[in-house]
Amino acid sequence: MFKKKPSLPHTPYSEYPLNTSLRELTFTVFDTETTGFAVGANDRIIELAAVTVRQLEVEQRTFQTYVNPCREIPAEITRLTGISGETVENSPLALEALEAFFDFADQTASGIWVGHYVAFDMMVLKKEAQRHGYRLNFPICLDTLNLIGFISPSNQMLDLEKYALQFGTKIFNRHEALGDALTTANLFCALLILLEQRGKRTLADLIEISEMNSRMLQF
């Protein structure tokens, strides 16, 4: 995943044929928490979590780590996430956390990442890698918002919890990376089932829908 001279050793992600059915795909659903939204400038990652989706079900095996941002965590972020300086003071730095996350995805042979408003989380990982002198090559990344845009195009909201309520899926601890990853994963499974019912049954269908409904986050 990292590219540098010399390159940092890392197991390559699995590649799926485009005609692979949804039920044969393995997904890594992930989420981040940060010190703020200016991740291209001074804000840093403080938590990273992920969960595996396989055969349209959320698996029990999860990944979660706090991250030491080497800077002060604003009081409003602590109120929102419950993460304080004391929480992260003995936690790994960003590069170590990213490597652990990649290892988690590799162990499940997942070649597809999923997030809710995933462009932000991708930017978080990309910028943290760049700060250590590495370039991050992403696998296929899917956004639940794009799938919702296909299934229910009239919706313009972004809130994860509201969508979980709309589609009748479980809601876990909000504004915690693992809780939001689990909430997103359960929502994602419900969306995949709805896509199947509409005749969208392959990886190629997912990619097409994502490109048609792509929502890019500007920084």
From TrEMBL:
Q: Name one GO biological process term.
A: DNA replication proofreading
What InterPro entries has UniProt attached to this entry?
Ribonucl_H, RNaseH-like_sf, RNaseH_sf
| UniProt entry tagged with the keyword Aminoacyl-tRNA synthetase | no
- GO cellular component term of the entry, any: cytosol
Q: Could you tell me the keywords of this UniProt record?
A: Exonuclease, Hydrolase, Nuclease
- Has the keyword Hydrolase been applied to this entry? yes
Short name of one Pfam family: RNase_T
- What molecular function terms (GO) are annotated for this protein? 3'-5' exonuclease activity; nucleic acid binding
**Ranges where the Exonuclease domain occurs:** 26-197
Instruction: Quote the protein name from its UniProt record.
Output: Exonuclease domain-containing protein
Q: Per the UniProt entry, what species is this protein from, by scientific name?
A: Halalkalibacter oceani
> What taxonomic classification does the UniProt entry list for its organism?
Bacteria, Bacillati, Bacillota, Bacilli, Bacillales
